[in-house]
Amino acid sequence: MTSTILKPVCFGLAAITLMACNPILRTHGYVPTEDKPQAVNPETDTKASVLARLGNPSVKSTFDEDIAEDTWFYMNSVRQRYAYLRPQIEERSITAITFDEDGQVTEVAEYGIEDGQYVNYVNRETPTRGRELSVLEQIFGTIGRLPTDRIGGNQDIPGGAGGPGG
């Protein structure tokens, strides 16, 4: 009797264990078509030709507007996830295409996952003035504080009743 119950339970646990070992891959960012960003030629390509071949970049540079150069970034990453574990980046590709003031490609640089650096974030909170209110204080705290001249009136206020037709 116990072996008839034990076999399906063991089979079910084995199936769940095997499913947990199967990774889920997800691609994020720019997905190249036939032309890859690395195929851009600094001697012949311009902003118009890069845009026509590759489409819009993932990010355009926004720093130092006084500098005549403009940089477009095409970013792609593949994340791998096992069951309940934290996802891990398996592959990352960043292609930076730099243009001069005339729109001509001056440089094509490629960066991979090995070029990345970890950034330590600071988990501090900004203190606020006052005190924290309980749920009941938040719910019942406005009773008696609503302005009576605005309730039920026919006024032209944003989001309120009224309007040009009354």
Automatic annotation (TrEMBL):
InterPro entries: BamE-like, BamE_dom. Pfam families: BamE (PF04355). Residues 1-20 form the signal peptide. GO terms for cellular component: outer membrane. Keywords: Membrane, Signal. The keyword Nuclease does not apply. This is Beta-barrel assembly machine subunit BamE. It comes from the Bacteria. Residues 29-107 form the Outer membrane protein assembly factor BamE domain.
